[in-house]
Amino acid sequence: MQTRFSISTVVALVLLALLALVPTASQVFQDPFLLTLFTRIVILALAAVSLNFILGYGGLVSFGHAAFIGVGGYTVGIMAKHEVYAAWAQWPLALLMSAIVALIMGLLSLRTRGIFFIMITLALAQLVYYMGNGAYAYGGDDGLTILRRSDFAGLIDLKHRPSFYYLCWALLCLALYLCHRVVNSRFGMVLQGAKSNDRRMAAIGFPVFRYRLAAFVIAGTTCGMAGVLLANHTDFVSPALMHWTRSGDLIVMVVLGGMGSLFGPLFGALSFLALEEILSSYTEYWKLFFGPMLVLVVIFARGGIDGALQRGHGGILLAILAGFVLLHGIHLFYEDLWYIPAALIAATIALAVIANRGVRRLP
User: Fold this and answer.
1) Is the pLDDT of residue 256 over 80?
2) At what angle do helices 244-257 and 115-134 cross, to 10 degrees?
3) What pTM was estimated for this model as a whole?
């Protein structure tokens, strides 16, 4: 039986505390981009938490989860275009629309399982994507610019970037807390039982379809909140928010961090977006390098980053992190000498392999 505060929980709490210091660090280092980057990380971590709720705990591999980001974002954008800026009107309607779309998608897709469920969620999400493409009154494929952020009647100024960041951070913490409570409730136990054997759960009297549908709606509504925040963050929405590749990015975040773990989506979102930022500074084809790294994580790090922490491999993770930080620092000084960062990547991987073998040989 695990202790109440496992090593991954301690690391996650420390990480959340460090994330709370990002606005201060941005001011100290006079780097506005730092706050912009971490605001995006926090928002997408919220979306990853919602996906992990049905993927990690429910076993529902949804390839259309990003559609709810688009629904939430477009609701805010469309209302802003019609000069309705009150958050008390925008945000509840955005959540309601996300819940309705999730309900419809769930009713159509949850009667299937396996690859059929994946393909139906993908098809329905692409349908929502092409509806956004065809909405020429709201920018169509070019997207829609939001001239004013949501207005909280003076209580919170979303134009003040640190205030907006802390709002996103607080909502992420709230989502993690609620996810913990729901997963450990009777509802969550039934959902996890259905993941293991849905026919057995149905045989003992639980309406599995209803439980899964409720979980799907909860996840879609939470992801819609991430869309609301992302629309206010970028002051822009476009159909690209709903493309299936965005759903793939969310799945990668969950897998990288650890499916079925409370803080896995947080670890995954932070790692994914940080690696994207670092690797894209070398080449626009950064996914060619990120792909093999993800494959290595899936093969050798069962349970993702959270699983590695639980098995006591935190030292190896810190060594890899230190290697990438060193790599990025060297790259800033030797921008044209690409072979130096490449050599450092090879050295980092080699050291990680050696350290991993050394840990395994310990008694």
Assistant:
1) yes
2) 130
3) 0.87
